[in-house]
Design brief:
CATH class of chain A: Alpha Beta
Distance between the termini of chain A: 69 Å
Largest interface: A-B, 95 and 95 residues
Structural class of chain A: alpha/beta
Oligomer: homodimer
CATH architecture of chain A: 3-Layer(aba) Sandwich
Number of domains of chain A: 1
Strand order of the largest sheet of chain A: 3-4-2-1-5-6-7-13-8
Strand content of chain A: 25-35%
CATH superfamily of chain A: Survival protein SurE-like phosphatase/nucleotidase
Chain lengths: ~270, ~270
């Protein structure tokens, strides 16, 4: 039986410690191939590159001689598309993204390049998982995260995922001895309250740095934020059908349903 | 009573015909302010700008003397954040994004900067709507789209939207006489089959242009794609809770739920 083909990507760039930890954790589970951005692409969300062309460069030495690796000039989502169409020439059996330097729990899932790569994998029908460690430090300890990545990757290889879903796994910054386990959760309601810092350049013109404060809007025990704040790693099934199904019937009751030109002009 | 404050943005850039059509359609419904990217930002998804600062420049002449307008160097989502925090200094009563040049129906919602601006509005608690015309031509006829934008904007100002939801409105490229009405729909299952075109630069090195084919994966009459292909404009309620709630109990049955260090090592 042939080994599963595992595509590994991230958004922190191909040289980030997090992707090295991920590769080390799972490399014997299948034939691994790394396709990752040539520079940090945090906060890129589901961006794709339309207006200019992309470059791909082999970097086979980076993860050891036996592991094919490529850096691209594109976004994390571009990396997945390039990998499937131009590098692997087939759909991998598993896509793993990360390990991200910093949380992608709750609303962060939507801004995250790491998670968007996993979402793109899901759209393409590949069982996909994104991993994030709630620690922004370059020298963060990825030990626990790597153990978790291996357990989750093995589970997904064995069981697959429900169609139209992927996984968002976040790991707390915690002493492994204090770790309380994996916890299947839902995305907590939260937002970033932006707070731009205005500065002036040497010519007196204003420019703005984005900063923000994370505002958690609920404390429920079934959420990913609760899990992370209580010593668990959160596992959230994510979907890319964005339809608010619960809002359909309400909207269908509005007068505008069925509105046409004749009746609509005032 | 004071007029509602309406924030208008897009992803095609502040000079695109689509945003001019949107402003014309709704300008008397409230106090309108335009905050839009200084250049095309299609396909930017929910990208935000973290690694470098942003510029904001007043462009008050662009939409007539009485309408404040600003261009920013950021993404569509950056525009919404800058508008709320630095330009309006308060939450607008309505956010309208578009009118996009090209469809944002079905899976396109996830790649779209226009829809991501509306999603960001929704996250911030602003009733938000994105509008897209299924016609990429710069000289596209935005007449029907503008009429629809006005009707939907008035409805949302009157009724508000359910918390955690926003609207994705797509308008077919159609003779207005053939238009069959607005149709509340769900997001159709679809994907893009990428197909990169490889070329070589004058130095012989390869580069890749992203192209793709849209693959519709279902034909149900309750989907946005069906509506658009049958003469309707689609109205899809969108949410930013990406949790696949229907997959939670399945995952909770996996052995990995509750996995800890002790039991996890092999």
């Amino acid at each position: 039986m042939s080994k599963p083909l595992i595509l590994i990507c991230n958004d922190d760039g191909i040289t980030a410690p997090g992707i090295r930890a991920l590769v080390r954790a799972v490399r014997d589970l299948g034939d691994c191939v790394v396709v990752a951005p040539d520079r940090p692409q945090s906060g890129m969300g589901h961006a794709i590159t339309i207006g200019h062309p992309l470059r791909v460069q082999a970097q086979h030495g980076l993860f050891g001689e036996d592991l094919p690796a490529y850096q691209t000039s594109g976004t994390p989502v571009d990396c997945v598309k390039l990998a499937v169409d131009q590098i692997l020439h087939r759909k991998p059996d598993l896509l793993l993204s990360g390990i991200n330097h910093g949380s992608n729990a709750s609303i962060n899932v939507i801004y995250s390049g790491t998670m968007s790569a996993a979402v793109e994998g899901g759209i393409e029908g590949i069982p996909s998982v994104g991993f994030s460690l709630c620690d922004y430090a370059l020298e963060a300890d990825f030990g626990l995260s790597a153990d978790i990545a291996r357990v989750v990757a093995k589970s997904v290889l064995e069981r697959g995922l429900m169609p139209g879903t992927l996984l968002n796994v976040n790991i707390p910054k915690i002493d492994p001895a204090q770790f309380r386990g994996l916890r299947v959760s839902r995305q907590a309601s939260a937002k970033w309250k932006e707070n731009f810092e205005e500065r002036h350049d040497p010519h007196g013109k204003a420019y703005y740095w984005m900063t923000g404060e994370f505002e958690l809007l609920e404390q429920s025990e079934d959420t990913d934020e609760w899990a992370l704040r209580n010593g668990y790693a959160s596992v959230v099934p994510v979907q890319f059908d964005l339809t608010a199904h619960h809002a359909l019937s309400n909207l269908q009751g509005w007068g505008m349903q069925g509105w046409k030109i004749e009746g609509g002009s005032e």
